[in-house]
Amino acid sequence: MPEEKLRVIGIDGGPRKGWNTARAVGEALEGAAEAGAETSLYRLWDMNFKGCASCFACKRRESFLRGACAFKDGLSPLLDALKGAAGIVMGSPIYLGDVTACLRAFWERYIFSNLNYDADNPSVMKKGPSSVVVYTMNVPSEAIPKMGYDALFRLHAGFLGRLNGDFVEQIAVCDTLQFEDYSMYHAPMFSEEHKRRVRDEVFPGDLAKARAAGRRLAGG
Predict the structure, then answer these.
(1) Does any domain span residue 1?
(2) Would 2 be classed as within a structural domain?
(3) pLDDT tens, position by position, 23-65
(4) pTM (two decimals)
(5) Residue 170 to residue 153: CA distance in whole angstroms
(6) Which of 67, 88, 91, 182 measures 20 to 30 Å from 115, CA to CA?
């Protein structure tokens, strides 16, 4: 029988199709595919779902729901697809100092249902998926420590790491181009010329980092 391919799931937590976050997640999935993984992409903005309902069904003793969210809604197909996945590529723009509300809601449903209230065995999964997280943001890279984003990224790495995956890799895509035509918006603090230069000269390198991370995620 042919060897079963590793599965890598891409999760786009941004609202804009084909824009910065979507492109970075897509590149990471391309890298995973180059390394031989079977890939699929889910857009959270296309799904109708909510965050954790605090029902604690996933924490009941001897429950068949242990390690799975009991709540059924538009997120359920993605949660089912993640079972047995070797890797997850997640992407989000930074809004008001954190990931989008939909990615955070996904984390509540997926990560919490797979965590044990047990210091010796923190995860229901003996071997969970490895993770790549791509963050896109309007601020330049030197603003990351000033804004506290480095601490935020460590926090995210901590709870993703509790899924017992091999590694969590994070990529910050900074100083992004926000608008196709800046003349249509009131944004005097930003230089369109600078933003387009970053888009042309720096963003391709960011996409290459995402692609390389995808290859590493799939073991390539």
Answers:
(1) no
(2) no
(3) 999 999 999 999 999 999 999 999 999 999 999 999 888 776 7
(4) 0.93
(5) 8
(6) 91
